[in-house]
Design a protein that fits this description.
Layout lengths: L2 E6 L3 H4 L14 H13 L4 E6 L33 E4 L13 E6 L10 H8 L3 E7 L1 H13 L5 E9 L3 H13 L3 E3 L1 H5 L2
Parallel strand pairs: 1-2, 1-5, 2-4, 3-4, 5-6, 6-7
Helix pairs in contact: 4-5
């Protein structure tokens, strides 16, 4: 089955204690993220890495502390999670080329990845038979991506040891909702040892 991996919001501001919107414990995910992304590259699996990209006065900052401001260090992905050949799909609507890219950096400026006008066209262009989702934060951006991909009617797997939540209870609810809608749970080892 052809797959695409969705690496959700694994950025410095979320993953590291010095980050503007640190998710406690998220730095422990970096080896798993690296392994998954490298596995995708080695097996020709398209990798979509969503990244928050906010303006300094972004409306989202009424609800959340400022984070992932475009052009700042915190907006970047850790070097360990980057693949060699990358293409960027920006926040603005457009027909972006990602031919030959191993990793598509998909910029967004809202929690919900589907709020980007470039999301549905990207999914259509990928033309795969299933999806694998991981990243941060489980009950927010990961949830939005996983549920949107499930709505496509194609199989979606959530990598349980490559996600991190702010609230364990909210994470459990998200996972329960995801599996109730037909989502599957997997692990890094299960995916990368096949």
């Amino acid at each position: 089955m052809s797959l695409a991996f969705f690496d959700i919001d694994t950025q410095i501001d979320f993953l590291f204690p010095a980050g503007a919107l640190y998710v406690p414990g998220a730095e422990r995910l970096i080896p798993a993220l690296r392994r998954l992304n490298q596995y995708a590259a080695a097996h020709g699996i398209p990798l979509v890495s969503s990244t928050d990209s906010h303006a300094e006065d972004d409306p989202e900052f009424r609800d959340w502390p400022p984070h992932c401001v475009a052009g700042t260090v915190g907006q970047l992905k850790p070097a360990e999670t980057l693949l060699e050949r990358r293409a960027t799909i920006g926040v603005a609507p457009g027909d972006y080329s990602f031919e030959g890219a191993q990793q598509i950096l998909f910029e967004k400026n809202k929690l919900d990845i589907t709020s980007s006008p470039n999301f549905q066209p990207l999914v259509a262009r990928l033309g795969v038979e299933g999806y694998v989702v991981y990243g941060v934060v489980t009950e927010y951006c990961v949830r939005f991506a996983a549920m949107a991909l499930l709505a496509s009617g194609k199989p979606v797997s959530l990598v349980t040891d490559a996600i991190q939540a702010l609230s364990p209870a909210a994470s459990e609810n998200t996972i329960r909702e995801f599996t109730a809608r037909g989502g599957r749970l997997t692990t890094v080892a299960s995916l990368c040892n096949t």
